[in-house]
Amino acid sequence: MDKYRFLTEDIILKISEYLEKFPNREQAIIPTLHEILNKYRDIPEDAVFEVSDFLKVPVSDVEGIVTFYDMFRNKKNARNHIRICRNLPCHLGRYKDLLERIIKLTGAEVGKNSPDGKWYIELVECIGSCAIAPAFLINDDLYDGSRIKDEDSLRKILERYS
Ligand code: FES
Hints:
- The protein has helices spanning about 10-20, 30-40, 45-55, 60-70, 90, 95-105, 150-160; strands spanning about 80-85, 120-125, 135-140, 140-145.
- With about 160 residues, it is of the alpha+beta class.
- The chain folds into 2 domains: about 10-70; about 80-160, Glutaredoxin, CATH 3.40.30.
- FE2/S2 (inorganic) cluster binds next to helix 5.
């Protein structure tokens, strides 16, 4: 197990379950990448090689999937990941105003890390929290954007993260 840095014992256990379920090893790539993403919030480059080695599938197959699916792209390496929903209820809830404030306070832009490496902002599809539109996530924490009435309340939320 020490052979791998990102494939920890718990992830390997999950992969073994996937391998039992799926008839071929390629089908285990996506669920494996989800496990890594859940744990590290990113798919580090070395993890791609580890997945390939463990599943005995070509590196290009794993890389192809990481590149194809937006959610797997290893572009986010900021310390905190802000995901703002842009679907209709959140659009009507004025997510753009919220986004503007977040951009102003973090210095990040959509799809780009902030210069201090602290923030990464991503616009996403419905996150299943339409009742609190505009909804957004900071890492795994869900927030109700409609309760953020001014910059100060947003600043206080952002200050919770290092
Ligand atoms: S539309 Fe934004 S959370 Fe569902």
